[in-house]
Write a structure and sequence with these properties.
Distance between the termini: 88 Å
Organism: Brettanomyces naardenensis
Coiled coil: 661-688
GO molecular function, one term: metal ion binding
Number of strands: 18
Subcellular location: Mitochondrion
Structural class: alpha/beta
Radius of gyration: 31 Å
GO cellular component, one term: mitochondrial small ribosomal subunit
Largest sheet: 10 strands, mixed
Length: 728
Amino acid sequence: MLRFTGGSGYSYTRSFSHSLTHRFSPSLCCPLSHPFNGSARRSAHRLPDKLISDDHLADEAFGQLVNEAINGRNPLHNHRVLTPEEADQGVDPRYRDPQTGELLDGATSREARLDARTLKGRVNRNQIKIPQELSKVIKYNMLFAYEPRHFKQQAAQYYMALNENGLPKPADNELETDVIIATTFSQNYAVAYQVLDELRKRVGIEKFNPKKVLDCGNGPGVGMLALNELMGEGFNPVKKDVYVGGSYYMMRRAKVMLSRQVNEAGERGEASGPVDDVASAEQVTNAAAETVTEQANDSPGATILPETDVSDSVGDESPFFKVRTKNLHIKSVLLNKLRPKSRKYDLIIAENQLLKDRSLFPHQVDDQLDELVARLEPGGYLVLLERGNPLGAESIARARQVILRPENNEGRVGKVAREYRKRGTTERSEVEESLMEEASEQLQVEPEILENYDVEVQQEQSQDLAVNLRILAPCPHHGPCPLQYFNPNYYRYGQLGKKLKFCSFSINVLRPPYLLELKQGSRLATKWTDKNSGEGIKGLAKAGNGRAYGLDYETAHYSYLIVERSSEDPSELANLRLEEEELREVGYRSTNEEESPRVLAPPLKRKGLVCLDVCGPSGHAEKWYISKSTGKQDFHDARKVKMGDLWELGVKSAIQSRKENTFYMKRLQEKEAKLREMEKRNSDRLKRKIKKDYKDAIGTEVNEGDLEGRLRRMAKIDAYEFLKNERT
């Protein structure tokens, strides 16, 4: 309780509890008990210059109430007690639209000074928190069975492998499944929630209500979990499919975690597709269980842990237990294989699905993108999520290039939907595949036999297959990506590779209790530089000392792409593409809100000047300078911009950024040519050495007792034979 007493004899009281209380109550107090004593007696009709409280706390909102009382205004308009949720967000609900929940102008004292366009272009800045029920499930139903020291060792090895390869590895067994969930779920959930929240904001909170959802990933249905949490308890689409790659144990974990969400309870909506094409969750789970049982019988050492009955009460005082997933019923259908391409969705979420092997870049990205686009219905959205490292950014950039084909539309960068063409010309169309499936079911003929026959397709049906896509976020244009380098290995080219910039963003996520416990101690408290990282090496890295002064949050970096399949007439879109402007200079300002520049980095602030690194509607990476002369409102808002926001206000001047790929491509190609020449020289040198060693081995004789000499001679001969066979 804080009590402030003025010289006029009035006592202003403010109570602080778990929730913020805006309460003002004047009451007459005894002058003799006045805490200000001398100063109050000397000035009986005015407040002191500085109010002092027993706890030395000051509050701006309370000070405002006092100021209003001094000036004769009634401060009792703030009589309502805020809820903990409202206090946590710091926004009075009176400043929110009661229907959409969006912030109105002047939601807080800081936001009251911002322009409406600045507020509209903002992305979520609040720290993402893992729902408490999901955190409890991970802690009590998954991690309790492991010895902490051994589990931390496994987590450290996974972190090192992830840092070295740059790609998340699917789980192969139960231990790897729990390690992946414990180490990466919090960040993956935060990324999915952040991107889906932006999609919902750009489309419109009222309009965004997907009815057929597909979530693809190697984790425990992260995309579906984030979508359920974002949409609320009333979210009940007709179709909810969750593809879980990797181990069957990950599918079990996904079912347990999904069962903890309210909107997964009850009966599932009726599907509109063929009855034979719809599989229930129990059928899919039982089929996967049989597959795992067969794999366990075939592979030595594979075991399936026994399960106990499930309990609905999971809390701090609840016992630890395994969950029998067959007793759980959820609306989402868990799949270990994607449905046929005839099944369409209006929202597809793909987490780390574009590239699974670095050596297969970029062909695997093209193939995976074809599979996802083929299942997207007109008017639907495709959300691609990758890690915020060079490999993830290049995978996203490659998918964008395949969707837009900017090399075939030189000079046209407007955000008009473009026709998507599959890679190659020998692939069958969707109508052909659906007709083959129907014929196979009716005639009871294997699909492999029907592949040798041509299927007649009506011309009217082929027109409906035209797929026109456009990028909704984060790109403000449809031109070539200014931060794409077409080769992830360029980032490994020493000092030159370190200068390269890639498109990625970040969001803070609060560490749940299980993750705080996991990262206590020295093993997970240092940088991951080599195989011994995390243990503390003398002269290289100091051992961690627990959570004494550690952060309770971590930053998730990600690259993403939101794609929309247009439902407009293809002929009209073709005419719009012809009417596009062919040239846009640096600093171009578009009247279309969807082409507002995207801020790529935190702003550089100087006295009277702000510099923004943006991806502009001109198709270039640009530096925009906003000074006081640009406008008081523009200058103020520019200082409040964060990475990922859209900038719709004015600019003083703009130049092309030196971070764009055009300034590095020539040097990178020269570096690549030098490395190839060096590899060729080293290869030729090795071949000459092998030939020389072969001649020496043939011309010399080795004593029968000299075993080491005989082995060396045989190795030289085998190396030459291998080289000769390689040529043939």
